[in-house]
Specification:
By secondary structure, the protein is an alpha/beta fold. It is built from 16 helices and eight strands. An eight-stranded mixed β-sheet has the order 1-2-4-3-5-6-7-8, with helices on both faces. 45% of the residues are buried.
Length: 324
């Protein structure tokens, strides 16, 4: 995927790099929001597909990633702040209505807050693998501990060990020294590896410390892997900025902002799609039932896939997203 990028400087003085494709035969813009550890490159199978169908497309590198600013101050990674950044970017391109928001992983958190603060711009929403995050339900350290305890009692394994590792002293350095090891585990669909080294507490540190490398998934080419390795190389800023998304949640920096969101805005009035997977972390979260009270027009599509569903099952995802 080789598209020219534009840049926009927000009122918070952060630079966002983004792909902008103007609509041809459609009036809808699709806003693609990626997660961790990624960039707009995650949407390389979706962007050309929907471009050919005439849709307008905005796909930013979110804060801390790719060609966008990579501040190391955890305090700027608030949902309100980052949703505001993206909203300003859309307004700068005169995109203030008729938007189909599509998000994966941490992008789902930003899409959630955009829908809370600026519901008028969206006609449809889609959450991939990670569902809508209602205000006041972030993954604080207390919540992560509670979820891990509950999942372990019910299913026999933990899911958020890696989450806590990112908040530990020395995590950035260990990640930056072992980029290939880290990326291989992030993209692995081996559930047992995931449970042992991502889910279990202490597992990720052990994985990196031993320099382990998981087998490459068949849906990732060597060129794609090389792209991701360069994306998070120390020369390109490493992981320090990106893992602030996790630290911010664990330290509950969104609490005050989210109390100010009107309760009526908790409800997603737009048609809302959830694409669930068999990824062990997401499956244990049961996003479908979490979302039902907040999404009265919810539709659910279930795919046999790991976390990176838009890469692993690209054709099915494109078809599902393209349904009217």
């Amino acid at each position: 995927m080789d598209y020219p990028t534009s840049t926009f400087i927000t009122s918070r003085s952060f630079t966002y790099s983004y792909i902008h494709i103007r609509p041809t035969t459609q009036t809808t813009y699709i806003l693609f929001l990626h997660g961790f550890p990624s960039s707009s490159y995650d949407w390389r199978h979706q962007i050309p597909y929907f471009e050919k169908k005439g849709y307008g497309i905005i796909a930013p590198d979110l804060l801390g990633y790719g060609g966008s600013s990579k501040p190391l101050d955890m305090g700027v990674y608030t949902g309100k702040g980052m949703a505001g950044d993206v909203y300003e970017l859309l307004k700068s391109e005169s995109i203030v209505e008729g938007v189909f928001g599509v998000a994966h992983d941490w992008g789902s958190f930003i899409l959630s807050r955009l829908a809370n603060y600026h519901p008028e711009i969206f006609t449809k929403l889609a959450f991939l693998d990670v569902g809508y995050v209602s205000p006041g339900h972030g993954l604080t350290e207390e919540m992560v501990t509670f979820v891990d305890k509950s999942v372990k009692e019910a299913m026999g394994f933990e899911v958020f060990g890696y989450f806590l590792f990112f908040n530990e002293e020395g995590a950035t350095e260990l990640l930056d020294e072992n980029v290939e090891s880290a990326q291989s585990l992030f993209h692995s669909t081996d559930a047992e590896l995931g449970k042992t080294y991502m889910g279990a507490r202490g597992g990720f540190r052990k994985w990196l410390g031993e320099g382990k490398v998981a087998e490459r998934e068949e849906w990732l080419s060597s060129e794609e892997i090389e792209h991701d390795l360069k994306l998070f190389s120390p020369d390109n800023g490493g992981y320090g900025a990106a893992i602030n998304w996790y630290r911010a949640q664990l330290q509950n920096i969104n609490a005050a902002d989210e109390k100010e969101i009107p309760e009526g805005n908790y409800i997603l009035q737009q048609p809302t799609l959830l694409i669930t997977t068999t990824n062990f972390i997401s499956a244990s979260a049961d996003f479908e039932n979490q979302m039902k009270p907040y999404a009265p027009k919810l539709e659910v599509a279930k795919l046999e896939s790991g976390h990176w569903v838009m890469l692993e099952r690209k054709d099915e995802v494109n078809e599902i997203l393209g349904q009217e």
